[in-house]
Amino acid sequence: MKLVLASKNPKKLKELGEILSALGVEVLSEDQAGVDVEVEETGTTFAENAKLKAVAVMQASGLPAVADDSGLCVDALNGAPGVYSARYGGPGLDDAGRYKLLLENMRGQLDRRCKFVSAICCAFPNGDIVEAYGECPGTLAYAPKGTDGFGYDPIFFVPEQKKTFAELTAEEKNAISHRGRALAQFREKLEVYKQTHKE
Ligand code: IMP
Description:
Mean pLDDT: 93
Shape: globular
Bound molecules: inosinic acid
Distance between the termini: 11 Å
Number of domains: 1
Strand order of the largest sheet: 2-1-3-4-5-6-7
CATH topology: Maf protein
Number of strands: 7
Radius of gyration: 17 Å
Largest sheet: 7 strands, mixed
Order of helices and strands: EHEHEHEEEEHH
Number of helices: 5
Low-confidence stretches: none
Strand content: 15-25%
């Protein structure tokens, strides 16, 4: 089975590529599949956005396509930044600018509960859809700590580890992260699909 990864993010391509190759799936980048798809993430949920991306790349390439959508949801902010995590504060901000803005918006807030969410969608040319979902609960830190990872990692504190995501090794993070959990579920569901679907 050939699958196109609907992402231009090298970190996601590597992570998804490794898991899928282990399943005996031949993984292609958009480049290798000869497509270059820009999808507007107009969905209101992570699952909707993952599906929008996967379906668009599947239709452009004629091959099954996998996409993921992820972000950070803060309880005290009614789930913000949520699906807007990558765009929080507008286009002028980088990762550090976004997490500083979030800390600013949480100043004085005692309820620091938050979670990372990841939704994965695989769209097949026959209309079949395989979806997976993962969450990782945590606590919003009061100041950034750690240098590894990306995005909101320096302010995402994991009480069990007494560390932020940015202080964990990639292996430690993958073992508990939203994306690690979604990928594990996706791997199981894709295996069932591969074994049981009819062409
Ligand atoms: P996407 O590429 O549209 O899925 O955007 C995901 C955004 O959510 C990223 O730009 C990050 O800001 C944030 N995010 C998702 N997963 C993580 C993570 O594991 N660590 C830190 N930030 C993350």
